[in-house]
Amino acid sequence: MNLTNFFGQPGNIVFVSFCFVAGIQIFYYLFFFSRVAFYKFKKRNINQTHPVSVIICARDEAANIAKNLPGALVQKYNTTHEVIVVNDNSIDESRYVLEEYQRTFKQLKIVELKQEARFIPGKKFPLSVGIKTARHEIVLLTDADCVPATENWIEKMQERFSDGIEIVLGYGAFQKRKGLLNKLIRWEGFHTALQYFSYAQAGIPYMGVGRNLSYKKQVFFRHKGFTSHNHLPGGDDDLFVNKAATKQNTTISVDCDTFTITEPPHSWKQWKRQKARHYSASKYYKRSHKILLGVYALTLFLFYPLFVSAILFFDWRWVVGVFLFRFIIQNIFLIRSMKKLGEKDLAGWILFFDIWMFFYYLIFAGTLFKRAPRNWK
């Protein structure tokens, strides 16, 4: 075959580009995402239990505290533990709700903050106070708008700690609701978790979510807390993990007993605001992580434009063949991963979500250049 003649035809170039993009995605599925799809936790013969400090930061969250805090307080964990709620300058009824719970649950400790931390936006200051207040080496973090999926959350999360492990990444699921927006939000949350879980399993941990994250105080103090990114509103979870996590000190938990459940945004505006906060922090990831994530995102964005172009300008049978091969591999790993993360009802929407990712990047690309809200609530 004369390569000059072959690449001299626009249709051939489009088809090769389509195959190249599809090949990159297949590589990500086989090398990375398979690690979640076929993940099995090897139980140890002897399980050591550890004292745990659960930390929740809240600002004007009286309703969420009343609804969700009992989930953390009624955990079936007989080993020493405490639940610390840092009430950050709330002006609603949060203090009185917390004091009422404290009468019943002696493991509840309340930290009242009555003064703002200048030049430290977001919840990094209250979270730092909570970690410094914690009596135990292992801290388990979640948010006031989250509730543990089961009463075994503390026990199962702390089980992941073993020799050398300092960070455990958990899954923060979104509550299932009716409507397309809810499915899109849950898909995005699942897709993000699929990436940070699988990359961590591949020895490249790059982020976690504050809705469900655990680490040892020593790793927090060794990296001087959040000082390297105190000026940013976000990053108390993903930027800290991006800096402190290594192949040796990080593990994951995809046990459904360790999930937390969060009330999802109720509008497109709320969702865009949430994503703006996340993307404002992702710009500060390590360069290797940005390249890894960027290449994958770019292939998702280009896949369907190239697919349509290849259908128009090349032999459609070859194009459809490549599409189906990639789609079969995609379904195998996504469906298995969805079952593991409790999102199996999304399996029938995979083709729709696949097409949606092109529009997702168009819609949210602008958030990369916007300044994130300075207030965390």
Summarize the structure in words:
The chain has 377 residues and is α/β, with parallel strands linked by helices. The protein has two domains: 118 residues, no CATH class; 230 residues, Alpha-Beta Complex (Spore Coat Polysaccharide Biosynthesis Protein SpsA, Chain A), CATH 3.90.550.10. The protein is built from 13 helices and ten strands. The protein has a seven-stranded mixed beta sheet, with helices on both faces. Strands 5-10-7 form a three-stranded mixed beta sheet. Helix 2 crosses helix 7 and helix 2 crosses helix 11. The chain is elongated, with a radius of gyration of 22 Å. The model has no long low-confidence stretch (mean pLDDT 92).
User: What is the share of helical residues?
Assistant: 40-55%
Report the CATH topology name of the largest domain.
Spore Coat Polysaccharide Biosynthesis Protein SpsA, Chain A
Order of helices and strands: HHEHEHEHEEHEEHEHHEEHHHH
What distance separates the N and C termini? Answer: 62 Å
Domain count, please report it.
2
Count of helical stretches: 13
CATH-level-2 architecture of the largest domain: Alpha-Beta Complex
Widest β-sheet, arrangement of strands: 3-2-1-4-8-6-9
The total beta strand count reads: 10
Strand content: 5-15%
By CATH, the superfamily of the largest domain comes out as Spore Coat Polysaccharide Biosynthesis Protein SpsA, Chain A
The profile of the biggest β sheet is: 7 strands, mixed
CATH class of the largest domain: Alpha Beta
Arithmetic mean of pLDDT? 92
